[in-house]
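Backbone geometry tokens:
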Amino acid sequence: MSNPESEDFVEQSWLWRFVMALLLVGQLGLRLFKGRIYPRAFLEQLAKAGPRSLLPVILIAISASAIFTIQTARELNRFGAINALGGAFALAFCRELGPVLTASIVAGQVGSAYAAELGAMRVTEQIDALMMLKTDPIDYLVLPRAIACCVMLPLLSICAIAVGIISGMLVARQFYHLNSWLFLQSVRSFLTPLDLLAVLLKGFLFGIVVSAIGCSWGLTTQGGAKEVGQSSTNAVVTTWIAIFMLDFLLSLVLFKTPIL
């Protein structure tokens, strides 16, 4: 039988960690304006958050766009509206699936690494050693990771959308004999510059979520190797939940049609 006291502790620990993640976001904003940035650490994290995540982002974009094109084209073809396939693709994949899937991949690869790295440093007292050397761990460890995520996630999202459009176009031409120009023209008619700005905004905000939760879960790790692994897993799950909830709120704000 489970111990009610231990369950309460787990729930309070998650809530406390989530509050710490929110407070960490505020600290990062203040420290960024003060210019406390370590260029070498930033460039290192930029490489981890960007080029190392590019291949899985491209593979997922190709697969997801192909699946979406096949499923959507099948239904549109039944109603004789196959020429609108590109527009449907633009509204669903480019606005929602592309940014969300990209953020989820980065959360699983980069956010989990943040939690594991900082968690290991916490339990081995390396963070305490940094403080003894009068080096702020937030400035040295967290801020470069946060900036790297916020810079690379919008770029990865745009890359995923571009690859997804090409993949969807090829699938539509190969299996449904839809002219590539018609597909791209339909995408262009539905996808506006404001949608691209919304994608960049989502990528930036998702970058904040991934870095804040991953780093916060790592910094609050207590115990040993087992707890480091648990922190990494919990950070990824929490990040996914936060990404989908934030995407829902952004969709309401950016794309909600007022009801007359």
